[in-house]
Structures are given as structure tokens and as C-alpha cells.
């Protein structure tokens, strides 16, 4: 089978819906996002026309048009008057969108997209730790210290440990006062935190090592050392991810 024949076959393949979804436009959007990310509908090529999509997914034109509109909002397609709907290059996709990000993570065997998530977190959280060391009041410092002490007690319970881990980082972010950076980090985290490929290994020794990083961050913030706090956060996020992703056999993109 030639590549063009294979693409044509995939283009008309029925969706793997166990039962008909209650919100067809939402379900169709999710299916089309996955197919675009998987390169079933490659960038630069036309999206199948309305009649084909209607037949493929057994939906009305209204549903197709609503789904295409949502795809356009996510940056995955461009609707051209009189020229159909074209799939856009991946550089134009909204990577903060939950469907787009999750489909990309699922498709990316190299973990490169998760490396990018970590790099983004590292840059933003390092800066927020720098600011927090200059602005955090006694209550915040006390809370960070209490969290670190509590996490030392939770190293045998990785689920509860991870919950406190997120609270620790969020406390630092709140102390910085940077609501935009915090929102970006929280949005990224909420979309990847429950994926096994992001969480990686969870044994006790890794929780112990992770909390040593938290304690260094806390100590630098308590000492009102902005540069030290930023460096401690940078190192902690980098080392924690390198350990979690170890065993993949892939090189990282963290040397930026």
C-alpha cells in the first residue's frame, strides 16, 4: 500500500467510540485533534471536506462545522474562503490547549514535548523563586519550612508526598506575586501531572532526594537570597525530571 493510499484509508476510518457520545462536536474535535497530531491529516494538506467527515463520523454538517471552528481556535486548521480547510504547521498549534498537549505527549515517544514542559516550568519557577526570596513574609517562610518537614515524613507515601510537593511549589509561586507565570505553570502541570510518562519513577529514595531540593529552595528563600533561591529551584526541577525520565534511552533537551 502506498503512503497516499494509507492516508486515504485512515482519512475515512471510523472513530473508536464505544458508544455514541452525548456531545458530538466535542467528541469529533478530540478525534480530529488526535488525527492531526498523529499526522493522519498532515500539516499543509486539506482537512477532508464536510461530506466526507459527516460520513466518516456519522454526524451532521452542523457538528462538523462546530468542530472545525474549535480546531481553528486551537490553531490546528485554517479556514480559507473558497479554498477549503487546511491543516496548519505544528508551530501554529496552541500547545497550552489540553487536547493538543495531551495528544502531542501521547504521540511523542522521545519525550521531547515533556522536556519542553519542564524547561518552561524551570524558567518560570526559577524567576518566581528569585522574587519570592525578596518578597516572602514570615508566614510564607514558616509555611514552606513546615511543608518541607512534613514531606520528610511522607517519603514512603509517594501519592501524598506529590500532593505536598505541588503545594510547596505553588506556595513559592504565590509568594512571587506573578499571577501570569503561576497560571502558565499550573495549566501545564494540571495537564501532565497524572500521566505516567511525566511522573516516571516514584520510589522512596527519589522522594528523599527530591525533598533535599525543596529544603535548599526553602533555606535560600528564608535567607532572602534571590540568586540562591533561583539556582536551587533550577537545579531541583532539572534533577527531578532527569531522574523521573531515566530509563527512556532518549537524550534530553534540558541544556538550554
Structure overview:
This protein has about 260 residues and is mainly α. The protein has helices spanning about 5-10, 25-35, 50-55, 60-75, 100-105, 110-135, 140-155, 160-175, 180-190, 195-200, 205-220, 225-245, and strands at about 75-80, 85. The protein has a two-stranded antiparallel sheet. A hairpin with a 3-residue loop joins strand 1 and strand 2. Helix 2 (about 25-35) packs across helix 4 (about 60-75). The longest helix is centred in the middle third of the chain and has 24 residues, at about 110-135. It is elongated and about 65 Å long.
Topology:
Elements: H1 3-11, H2 24-37, H3 50-57, H4 61-73, E1 77-80, E2 84-87, H5 98-107, H6 112-135, H7 138-153, H8 158-176, H9 179-192, H10 196-199, H11 204-222, H12 226-244
Antiparallel strand pairs: 1-2
Helix pairs in contact: 2-4, 2-5, 3-4, 6-8, 6-9, 6-11, 6-12, 7-8, 7-11, 8-9, 8-11, 11-12
Structural class: mainly alpha
Portion of residues in beta strands equals: under 5%
The helix content is 55-70%
Number of helices: 12
Q: Outline the low-pLDDT stretches.
A: 1-11
**Mean of all residue-level pLDDT scores:** 88
Number of strands: 2
Biggest sheet strand order reads: 1-2
Amino acid at each position: 500500500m502506498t503512503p497516499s493510499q494509507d492516508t486515504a484509508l485512515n482519512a475515512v476510518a471510523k472513530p473508536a467510540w464505544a458508544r455514541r457520545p452525548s456531545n458530538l462536536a466535542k467528541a469529533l474535535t478530540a478525534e480530529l485533534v488526535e488525527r492531526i497530531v498523529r499526522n493522519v491529516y498532515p500539516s499543509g494538506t486539506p482537512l477532508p471536506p464536510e461530506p466526507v467527515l459527516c460520513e466518516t463520523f456519522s454526524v451532521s454538517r452542523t457538528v462538523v462545522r462546530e468542530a472545525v471552528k474549535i480546531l481553528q481556535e486551537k490553531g490546528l486548521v485554517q479556514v480559507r474562503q473558497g479554498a477549503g480547510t487546511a491543516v496548519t504547521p505544528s508551530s501554529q498549534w496552541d500547545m497550552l490547549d489540553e487536547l493538543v498537549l495531551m495528544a502531542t505527549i501521547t504521540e511523542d515517544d522521545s519525550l521531547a514535548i515533556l522536556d519542553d514542559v519542564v524547561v518552561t516550568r524551570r524558567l518560570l519557577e526559577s524567576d518566581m523563586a528569585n522574587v519570592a526570596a525578596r518578597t516572602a513574609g514570615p508566614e510564607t517562610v514558616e509555611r514552606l519550612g513546615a511543608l518541607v518537614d512534613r514531606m520528610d515524613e511522607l517519603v514512603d507515601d509517594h501519592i501524598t508526598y506529590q500532593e505536598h510537593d505541588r503545594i510547596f511549589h505553588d506556595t513559592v509561586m504565590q509568594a512571587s506575586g506573578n499571577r501570569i507565570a503561576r497560571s502558565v505553570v499550573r495549566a501545564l502541570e494540571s495537564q501532565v501531572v497524572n500521566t505516567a510518562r511525566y511522573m516516571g519513577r516514584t520510589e522512596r529514595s527519589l522522594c528523599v532526594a527530591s525533598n533535599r531540593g525543596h529544603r535548599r529552595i526553602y533555606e535560600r528563600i528564608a535567607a532572602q537570597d534571590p540568586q540562591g533561591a533561583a539556582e536551587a529551584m533550577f537545579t531541583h526541577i532539572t534533577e527531578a525530571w532527569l531522574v523521573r525520565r531515566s530509563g527512556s534511552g532518549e537524550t534530553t533537551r534540558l541544556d538550554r
